[in-house]
């Protein structure tokens, strides 16, 4: 499942460099868990197994996960990333990304006789089912749905696209929660994007529950375990750090939230860095204690590359702070599940 998170030690990195004694000291607090979650791991395996089973090319609608290193690695193996299905040739094989898609997308794939594989994270699919339950087929038991999420994010587009237009109202922030005016305040439900800030979402939910006491919520928390655990891990170490680096792509919602959590948890500064080559090393001037984490779509290899470069520049000591162990694994979708 997820990549191993055993950190590189200072002595194992760049053995030909000058002696540690001649370099400035740097303490690294390594957040755990970090990096790949089970949904991301599954989505990548879907593409890899499709390539093994069907051969290249396999088309992928949108980035399979929000990380360029992952996308480029799959491109090297024969995956072709497209924005829409009209870029996929007839009888092609296409994978839907981990973020989920509107119902219109598989319907179009079927119409065009495309063999499609759905890599939607099972925890996102759970939110889709909640939305359908609240909608209740548009009958007398229907509740209007307030979705807490970020406009334009693929997961939000996919979730809202499970239902007819007008069935869901998007709530981006606390202000919108305080101002929304539903037609029937007694027939409401809320769902959330899975990669939000736990604290921001709790504030919005409190506003909605105060304004609409009869609103129905998820049977279980929508924000996924990986988002929650990674934010908890960053909170635990942020206040001790002069700087926190989050490895992740700018378009990764969960990575951006980790950076925000670090700042709110009293880290002096926090940066989002896609990979080591993007690092502005002047940001480490005066830093004695550095916190590190990685978004759920960032491979552990990017963390280790950053540690190797830090160990070449500093006399590094590493302390890993693990707040929760993770052992979740999701099965591949049919027909791939039978192939492995």
Protein topology:
Elements: E1 25-32, H1 38-54, E2 58-61, H2 68-77, E3 79-82, E4 93-96, H3 104-111, E5 115-118, H4 122-135, E6 144-148, H5 154-160, E7 168-171, H6 174-179, E8 188-192, H7 198-211, H8 225-238, E9 243-247, H9 253-264, E10 270-273, E11 289-294, H10 300-313, E12 315-322
Parallel strand pairs: 1-11, 1-12, 2-3, 2-4, 4-5, 6-7, 6-8, 9-10, 9-11
Helix pairs in contact: 4-5, 8-9
What do you see in this structure?
With 340 residues, this protein is an alpha/beta fold. The protein folds into 3 domains: 10-36 and 225-322, 3-Layer(aba) Sandwich (Cobalt-precorrin-4 Transmethylase, domain 1); 38-121, Rossmann fold (3-Layer(aba) Sandwich), CATH 3.40.50.11270; 123-211, 4-hydroxy-3-methylbut-2-enyl diphosphate reductase, catalytic domain (Cobalt-precorrin-4 Transmethylase, domain 1, 3-Layer(aba) Sandwich), CATH 3.40.1010.20. The chain is 34% helix and 18% strand. The chain is built from 10 helices and 12 strands. The chain has helices at residues 38-54, 68-77, 104-111, 122-135, 154-160, 174-179, 198-211, 225-238, 253-264, 300-313, and strands spanning 25-32, 58-61, 79-82, 93-96, 115-118, 144-148, 168-171, 188-192, 243-247, 270-273, 289-294, 315-322. Strands 10-9-11-1-12 form a 5-stranded parallel beta sheet, with helices on both faces. Strands 3-2-4-5 form a 4-stranded parallel beta sheet, with helices on both faces. Helix 4 runs parallel beside helix 5 and helix 8 packs parallel to helix 9 (253-264). The longest helix has 17 residues, at 38-54. 45% of the residues are buried. The model is unreliable at 1-17 (pLDDT under 50).
């Amino acid at each position: 499942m997820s990549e191993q998170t055993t950190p590189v030690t200072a002595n194992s990195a760049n053995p030909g460099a000058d002696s540690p004694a001649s370099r400035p000291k740097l303490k690294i607090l390594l957040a755990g868990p970090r990096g790949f979650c089970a949904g991301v791991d599954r989505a990548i395996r879907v593409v890899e197994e499709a390539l093994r089973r069907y051969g290249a090319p396999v088309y992928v609608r949108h980035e399979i996960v929000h990380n360029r290193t992952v996308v480029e690695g799959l491109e090297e193996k024969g995956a072709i990333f497209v924005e829409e299905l009209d870029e996929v040739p007839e009888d092609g094989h296409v994978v839907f990304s981990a973020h989920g898609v509107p119902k219109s997308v598989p319907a179009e794939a079927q119409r065009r006789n495309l063999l499609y594989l759905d890599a939607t994270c099972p925890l996102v699919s759970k939110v889709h089912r909640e939305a359908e339950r609240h909608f209740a087929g548009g009958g007398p038991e229907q509740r209007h749905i307030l979705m807490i999420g970020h406009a334009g994010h693929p997961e939000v587009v996919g979730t809202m696209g499970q239902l007819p237009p007008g069935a869901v109202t998007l709530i981006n922030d606390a202000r919108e929660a305080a101002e929304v005016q539903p037609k029937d305040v007694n027939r409401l439900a809320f769902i959330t994007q899975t990669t939000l800030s736990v604290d921001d979402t709790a504030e919005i939910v409190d506003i909605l529950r105060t304004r609409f006491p009869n609103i129905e919520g998820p049977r279980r928390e929508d924000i996924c375990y990986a988002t929650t655990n990674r934010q908890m891990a960053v909170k635990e170490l942020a206040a001790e750090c002069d700087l926190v680096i989050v490895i992740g792509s700018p378009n990764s919602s969960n990575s951006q939230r980790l950076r925000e959590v670090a700042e709110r948890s009293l880290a002096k500064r926090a940066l989002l860095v896609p990979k080591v080559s993007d690092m502005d090393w002047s940001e480490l001037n005066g830093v004695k204690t550095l916190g590190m984490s990685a978004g759920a779509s960032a491979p552990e290899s990017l963390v280790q590359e950053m540690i190797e470069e830090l160990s070449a520049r500093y006399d590094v000591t590493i302390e890993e702070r693990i707040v929760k162990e993770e052992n979740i694994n999701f099965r591949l979708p049919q027909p791939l599940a039978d192939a492995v």
